[in-house]
Design goal:
Blueprint (H helix, E strand, L loop, with lengths): L1 H11 L2 H33 L13 H28 L2 H33 L7 H22 L3 H15 L2 H11 L19 H33 L4 H10 L1
Helix pairs in contact: 2-8, 3-4, 3-6, 3-8, 4-5, 4-6, 4-8, 5-6, 5-7
């Protein structure tokens, strides 16, 4: 079984083989993203009860928390792809890391923006130099640095190797974000959901948040696959199979 999985992984590590697979998967994940988003937001805004302390302003967590989680998760996966591309020189891994960066940066920005909107009624300020907020801002800068360095170098392979170093080194910031509320005395509240303890919220709140997490996950997969296909066409445009593909589309 492990040998078969390795063969499959190696087969789809080729841009030529990955391209059609991604095309088949995109509609599936896109539909799931739309359906889950509608369900999650409906439960969060119309079914979940009003919080006894924060009122209705807390409902922004149904976007804020999943976005923050996805910003960290995507960075970890991006760093893994970058590492594989850096060590084993696999082009498809480099392309996947490149495709994931804009989506991760978007979620980091959404997490910061919604956090500011949440912070104003909760803390009385849109921004404080809180450990978690600051480390999340650093994560956004890491994404921007990755994309900026990649676009600054003309040779795609050299650009991928250079930006991979940022991704791999910067991954140390992810546990800092996660554990910041435990390591330092911060204004940011602790985790309401943890695998080691019972949830600290109503079932409807938890259901909405988890559905939105999966919705953002499905969206990320769909968008990353779309972007990866575009990157493949751009970087492999001199190959015979891409030229034939473009010709057949015409």
């Amino acid at each position: 079984m492990a040998f078969q999985n390795s063969i499959i992984w190696l087969y789809f590590s080729s841009p030529k083989n990955f391209y059609p697979l991604a095309g088949k998967l995109i509609p599936v994940f896109a539909v799931l993203a739309v359906v889950l988003t509608v369900i999650g937001l409906y439960i969060g805004f119309f079914v979940a009860p009003t919080d006894y302390q924060q009122g209705d302003s807390y409902r922004i967590i149904f976007i804020h928390v999943p976005a923050a989680w996805m910003s960290m998760f995507i960075y970890i996966v991006m760093a893994m792809y970058a590492f594989v591309g850096l060590v084993w020189n696999i082009k498809m891994s480099e392309m996947m890391a490149s495709a994931m960066a804009p989506t991760g940066a978007m979620f980091a920005f959404i997490a910061l923006w919604t956090g500011a909107l949440w912070g104003k009624p909760t803390w009385g300020a849109y921004w404080v130099w809180d450990a978690r907020l600051t480390s999340e801002l650093i994560l956004l800068f890491l994404y921007i640095g990755f994309m900026s360095l990649e676009s600054a170098i003309d040779d795609p392979r050299r650009a991928a190797r250079a930006s991979a170093l940022i991704a791999v080194v910067g991954v140390v910031n992810v546990p800092i974000i996660y554990f910041s509320v435990k390591w330092w005395n911060t204004l940011h509240q602790g985790a309401s959901v943890s695998p080691t303890m019972a949830p600290k919220m109503a079932a409807a709140m938890l259901n909405s948040m988890m559905i939105m997490v999966f919705a953002f996950w499905m969206y990320s997969i769909a968008v990353v696959l779309m972007r990866a296909r575009n990157i493949i066409l751009e970087r492999e445009k001199q190959t015979t199979w891409v030229q034939e593909l473009v010709t057949n589309k015409k």
